[in-house]
Write a structure and sequence with these properties.
Elements lengths: L12 E18 L2 E12 L2 E8 L1 H5 L5 E12 L2 E5 L5 E6 L5 H12 L11 H10 L1
Parallel strand pairs: 3-5
Antiparallel strand pairs: 1-2, 1-4, 2-3, 4-5, 4-6
């Protein structure tokens, strides 16, 4: 199935798409429970549309990720089609946006300038300087 084939009120949607944009996260309260919702834009070779992300799905996906929506549902809001996993569908991340988990961890460590154990990461110049002092 591809985006161009999807119609409003269509269920049992099974598509593989890429996230091209992720909007602001909004909080809501319904029936005494709080939740989060976010609109993303998805695309495939045939077009693009909105995807509604709910709660933990928001944290699972990022721009550039390739995802598989299984048993999704297409709704329509202001004449714009929107895909959602709804109550019975699932969302699976097939491919992260070109960044492996190890690269992501390394980037986070470098951004903090400390190792996982909290030690300061030194530049080559700092290491040479420390060796000269000792």
């Amino acid at each position: 199935m591809n985006i161009a084939e999807l119609q409003p009120k269509q269920g049992k949607v099974d598509v593989v798409v890429q996230i091209t944009d992720k909007g602001d996260i909004r909080e809501f309260n319904k029936f005494g429970k709080t939740g989060r919702v976010c609109s993303a834009t998805i695309k495939d070779d045939t077009g693009s549309m909105k995807l509604t992300l709910w709660n933990e799905q928001i944290d699972e996906v990022n721009v550039g990720d390739k995802i598989h929506v299984k048993n999704g549902y297409v709704s329509e809001f202001k004449d714009e089609k929107q895909l959602s996993t709804g109550k019975f569908g699932t969302l699976e991340v097939l491919e992260k946006s070109g960044v492996t988990k190890d690269e992501e961890t390394e980037a986070n460590v470098l951004a903090n300038e400390t190792t996982d154990s909290g030690e300061k990461i030194m530049t080559d110049e700092e290491m040479v300087e420390e060796e000269l002092i000792q």
